[in-house]
Amino acid sequence: MKDEAFQELLDSVREGGAILRGEKKPAREFEVPEVEVAQLRKRLELSQQKFATLIGISVRTLQEWEQGRRRPRGPAKVLLHVANSNPKAVIEAVHPKETKRATRRTAARRVASG
């Protein structure tokens, strides 16, 4: 690694440490709004087991969130925000095969009833 690149990396690490210690403010911050997890799950008409599986967490963690004993943080908080804004995108991204099957079933039902 060239000296200039190493110095830039070292400066960045030091700056990150100062931000973590509260000695310096970050250049930018992102605030992700809280999501009412239980309301989201019910709106999607999913059981706790199915919802937990969808977003890759344990049922216990989901129960902790729904009962207010813990709050989602980091990537989980972002995923919940996306699921709240565009649940279809999350379902399609996480379970593309299930989405295709459901689409085929819906189309078959339309043909049968029409």
Compact summary:
With 114 residues, this protein is mainly alpha-helical.
Features:
114 residues; mainly alpha; 434 Repressor (Amino-terminal Domain); 2 domains; 69% helix; 0% strand; elongated
Strand content: under 5%
The name CATH uses for the topology of the largest domain is: 434 Repressor (Amino-terminal Domain)
Gyration radius (Cα, Å) is 21 Å
Annotation field: number of helices = 7
Helix content: 55-70%
The low-confidence runs, each spanning 5 or more residues with pLDDT under 50, are none
DSSP strand tally: 0
CATH top level of the largest domain is Mainly Alpha
**Number of domain modules:** 2
Instruction: State mean pLDDT (0 to 100 scale).
Output: 86
How are helices and strands ordered from N to C?
HHHHHHH
Indicate the overall shape. elongated
CATH architecture of the largest domain, by name, is: Orthogonal Bundle
Distance between the first and last residues' Cα: 67 Å
Structural class by helix and strand composition = mainly alpha
Sheet with the most strands, sense and barrel status: none
Fourth-tier CATH superfamily name of the largest domain:
lambda repressor-like DNA-binding domains
